[in-house]
Amino acid sequence: MTVRWGIIGPGRIADKMAPDFAHVEGAELVAVASRSAERAGAFAAKHGIGTVHTSYRDILDDPGVDVVYVATPHPQHRAIALAALESGTAVMVEKAFTVSSVATREIAATARRTGVFAMEAMWTRFFPAVRRLRELVAEGAIGEVRSVQADLGVRNRSGSDDRFFSPELGGGALFDLGVYPISFAQMVLGSPSVIAAAGELAPSGVDVESSILLGWPDGRNAALQISLRSAMPGSARVIGAEGWIEVPPRFHHPDRIVLHRHGAEPEEIVLPATGAGFVHEIDEVTRRVAAGETESPMMPLADTVAVQDVLAAVAGRLGMIPEEGPATL
């Protein structure tokens, strides 16, 4: 079975992702939608896409599209995802899934009610190196996991009118960068019971940088840092009672991990990604949709809800008021 894909929002990330469809058996990129006919046409011409839609509703009503990848700004995800699910079209929604817990729960509930596949496009979880990390943790290679450390920062020198500083477009370090270390920590440790954060807001009301501390009742913890002001290594560490696993920069799309067992030499495990790295999440969705499944066990909706709850709590601690888009197209 060939699963036919459409892209909604032909921006930078979609442009990087589109060539990776050629590496996935059973996946075909057949359509693109944008409110700008010029942008959609140029994207289609560049990537050899046969069908161009100039409204989001049209691509969802296209019987030749089985699943859509939603790559619009975060506040627009809610309306598009809900409309897709109601139309019977499977969705992979770019992270951050939305900018509120309410919207994320609404989408998850709609997916379960309609029985239509939905998944957050958290590509990190599907990288071969991260899959191996999860296996090692499950095997007890580093003993009981007690802590996660991760940082992700970029030296953004864009003007105040840039999307990264616009609350209307879901800007700020938290939703663009913070979702990665938070999701990584949740993947390893589960949902925290304590959430603390400190940082700085731009004049527009979105965060420029912040430090996040997550805690669990048994003392496990995660220390995370994000920034739009300062470049950071982009590394992560999973620390256990019997050793640790290092994920070298950039941890959110790694090609290797280093296993440190107490009393043993470090073991480097090299597992490169295919293509630009999007292949693995495209393959996951393609296989699940072809099989008639409604969720991915690697990135279940419950995990997306849990991560969104942390994002919402951090936003509240920092004094951010995210601007969620409408619920309907």
Could you explain how this protein is built, in words?
By secondary structure, this protein is α/β, with parallel strands linked by helices. It folds into 2 domains: 3-124 and 278-318, Rossmann fold (3-Layer(aba) Sandwich); 128-270, Dihydrodipicolinate Reductase, domain 2. The protein is 32% helix and 25% strand. Strands 8-9-10-7-11-12-13-14 form an 8-stranded mixed β-sheet, covered by helices on one side. A hairpin with a 5-residue loop joins strand 13 and strand 14 (267-270). Helix 4 packs parallel to helix 5, helix 5 packs antiparallel against helix 9 (301-318) and helix 7 packs across helix 9. The chain starts with a strand and ends in an 11-residue tail after the last helix.
Query: Mind telling me which CATH architecture of the largest domain this is?
Result: 3-Layer(aba) Sandwich
Rg (C-alpha, Å)? 19 Å
Give a count of the beta strands, DSSP E runs of length 2 or more.
Answer: 14
Oligomer class: single chain
**What fraction strand?**
15-25%
Name of the CATH first level of the largest domain: Alpha Beta
Order of helices and strands: EHEHEHEHEHEHEHEEEEEEEHH
Number of domain modules:
2
Distance linking N and C termini: 30 Å
Low-pLDDT residue spans: none
Structural class of the helix and strand makeup? alpha/beta
Helix content: 25-40%
- Largest sheet properties: 8 strands, mixed
CATH superfamily of the largest domain, please?
NAD(P)-binding Rossmann-like Domain
Q: What's the mean pLDDT score?
A: 96
What strand order characterises the main sheet?
8-9-10-7-11-12-13-14
How would the global form be characterised? globular
According to CATH, the fold-level topology of the largest domain is Rossmann fold
Count of runs of 4 or more consecutive helical residues: 9
